[in-house]
Amino acid sequence: MVAGFPALVWLVTDIQNPSAWRTAAALAVVVVGGTLLLRAHWLLYRPEPWVGRDSPFGEPNRLVTHGPYRHIRHPYLVGIYLVILGWVVAFPGWLLATYLIVVVVLSSVVANTFERRGLERTFGAEYEAYRRATSQFVPRLF
User: Fold this and answer.
1) Which of 74, 104, 87 is nearest to 29 (CA)?
2) Quick one: which of 73, 75, 89, 116 could link to 40 by a disulfide (CB 3.0–4.6 Å)?
3) Could you give the CA distance from residue 124 to residue 122 in angstroms, rounded to a whole number?
4) Which of 101, 78, 85, 92 is nearest to 10 (CA)?
5) Exposure string (b/e) for 64-97, b if CB count within 10 Å is 16 or more?
């Protein structure tokens, strides 16, 4: 939903067709972001690691620290950011750029407050060690 909003903006505004290089760059960013988003989603919401079988959104019984989560704590969000950034590259303008900034700021606040508290409560020292070993959004190079 969040990553699809730019498509709605594109449909209802008078944005000119992007150039070939811009389309290729935007497509590359969207594919990378979409792949990261889908991989992160699969690791979080597949049935095996969840206790609540009535809902795929039950409480996790283990901390996911493999796949893209090995490098960053929020690959799901980074995937969303990249998809929206791809739209910004394809159709530059203040509306989509502002939307990207708002999504990044609001989701960062949520990730740093509510989500972090819940993970600390659920996983304790295991999450604290994971949090210290990984960065939030950009992989550490060293």
Assistant:
1) 87
2) 75
3) 6
4) 92
5) beeebbeebbbbbbbbbbbbbbbbbbbbeeeebe
For residue 136 the two structure tokens come to 């939030």
What are 13's two structure tokens?
Answer: 């505004």
pLDDT tens for the chain, 142 residues long, are 555 666 655 555 555 666 788 888 989 999 999 999 999 988 887 665 445 555 455 556 678 899 999 999 999 999 999 999 998 998 888 888 999 999 999 999 988 888 888 889 889 999 999 999 999 888 877 5
DSSP 8-class letter at 72 = B
Q: Which residues pair with 50 in a beta bridge?
A: 60
Give the chain as a DSSP string. Answer: -TTTHHHHHHHHS-PPPPPHHHHHHHHHHHHHHHHHHHHHHHHHHSSTTBS-TT-TTS-BSS---SGGGGTBS-HHHHHHHHHHHHHHHHS-SHHHHHHHHHHHHHHHHHIIIIIHHHHHHHHTHHHHHHHHHSBSSS----
